[in-house]
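Can't paste images in this forum, so I'm doing it all in text. The chain is below; anyone willing to post the predicted structure tokens underneath?
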Amino acid sequence: MTTVKHYAQIGYAKVKHLLILLYFIPYLVCFNFIEANITTHFHIIHTPIDDMIPFCEYFVIPYILWFFYVGWGVTFFALTDKKIHYNLCGFLFTGMTIFLICSVIYPNGQFLRPVYFAHHNIFTALCQAIYSSDTPTNILPSIHVYNTIGIHFAIIRSDKFKNKRMFCFCSGLLATSIILSTMFIKQHSTIDVFLACLLAYVVNRFTFKITSSELFYYRKRL
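Text version of the structure:
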């Protein structure tokens, strides 16, 4: 029994840092509840700048890549870098919790999506699939944008990518395209994006603590 207990303790010590990921369970429960119940009587998020941004269905590709980017980032750091894993979870979960609170106390939504598509192709079909599965409500601040920034910050801060400048550069390009995609396929207003960036800036000061010079260091060294 002592041997079994010993190995159990060793096993627990190796995986206990993964328990923090259980946060996703109550988050998804709360998110789905909010999505199902806050569908009317919400504040409309809109600025004149939104009307100046054209709909571009091709941006649906980086928008979809977000799921792989964030999924990969959370999994990779959970398995390879405990310090960054905790920083990343602290960053993501703080913003995601604030997002839930905002959705409850300030119900919000948008009417930016096109009523019809001028032409039809696989990209507009993907946009339609997203529109059908995701309501245009509870968008402030944009978690799509916020979590993207979090993953990129984790990559920059991690020693795993310290000497992989091109990888960091490509991550920055992908992150930028994902952020832009939220506006070009009309999933988010510029206000959602701005507030997500502002929130990321604030939370970063308590988690990754990345400076502006560090954020763009790979540009100077290429």
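The chain has one domain: 19-221. Residues 19-221 form one domain.
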